[in-house]
Amino acid sequence: MLFQQFLLEKQYNEWIKETTLISYRFYFSLLPLSGMSPDDTTTLTVRNFRTLLASEGYNRKWSPATYNTARKCFNSYCTYLVRDKLLESNPFDTITKMREPQKLPKSLSVDQVKTLKYAITHLFNPNTFLWLRDICIFQTMLYTWIRRKELLDLKPSDLDLATLTIAIRNGKGGKGRIVPVCNQLIPVLSEYLRILHAEHSDPLFLFPSKNNFNLWIRNLRNVFEKVKEKIDFPLSPHRLRHTFATELVRNDLDIFNIASVLGHASVKTTQIYLTANTETINKKISSLNLYAF
Predict the structure, then answer these.
(1) Quick one: pLDDT at residue 270?
(2) CATH number assigned to the domain comprising residue 64
(3) Is residue 293 a part of any domain in this protein?
């Protein structure tokens, strides 16, 4: 009962994704293996949690990232119990995170972007609403770096071509922000809006289904799978996000502005793109006249 109340609060107060809820349910299904129950707070001890994380981490060959995800789920629940005075102290005050190796973001090269644009233009049935919608989805993700859930939640009123902005009403963590629209995207969006209103007199979403319903993540995944059949390099919504963020760094956009538009809570998250941008860094260093007297 306590655990279900916790999940409800997470879902409706913090706007966490369904995939995050699935993670919570999975990790908490492991508690009985160490004699714990989420609804029996007397079993939620430091010793029991340490035993669980050590044994399951070893048996399931958890990576540091997976270990930390499990720890984060358990810590969040214990924090909730302490807040409501159902647990005296949080066991995870003394259970630290594992150090994770830094992974550089993987982005598309300029040639791969060109290949992708050609693929999406020639893959779908031309001159149909769904054809233009799917092209516009790819172009919007490539030129606005918004997350996939943010894209699927967009309403037509969120797009303002007069000010060249897109309003993200419910971003990660329930936060909103304003995203600028690049010039390259304006003709595509303008034509798409015209066809959208011809297809649906009162569209509920900017990228609706054929029946004017909200697209699901799996619908977006299916579109990506079709495109991936026509290209020879990895592709995902997040890789498109990495690609544009890297492109902004290459064009010397201020790192703090990039963090704001990407919706990063901390600029430290954005700084990894500076590390990944070795090509531009190498060119700049090679052109410097160092130690000139």
Answers:
(1) 64
(2) 1.10.150.130
(3) no
Contact 41, 86 (CB under 8 A): yes
User: What domain range includes position 199?
Assistant: 110-283
pLDDT confidence band for 117 (50 / 70 / 90): confident
Question: Which is catalytic among the residues 172, 177, 200, 228?
Answer: 172
pTM, entire model: 0.61
242 given a catalytic annotation: no
Of the candidates 155, 238, 283, 284, the residue annotated as catalytic is: 238
Q: Which of 133, 148, 241, 242 is catalytic?
A: 241
**What element of type H or E holds 168?**
strand 165-168
Q: Residue count of the chain, please give it.
A: 293
Q: Is 147 known to be catalytic?
A: yes
Mean pLDDT within 175-197: 87
User: Contact, 265 vs 171, CB < 8 A?
Assistant: no
115: domain CATH number is 1.10.443.10
Answer yes or no: 71 catalytic: no
Same structural domain for residues 76 and 116?
no
- Report the DSSP pairing between strands 177-180 and 159-160: unpaired
Task: List, for residues 161-170, the tens digit of each pLDDT value.
Answer: 888 889 888 7
Span 131-149, average pLDDT = 85
Which of these is catalytic: 71, 133, 147, 148? Answer: 147
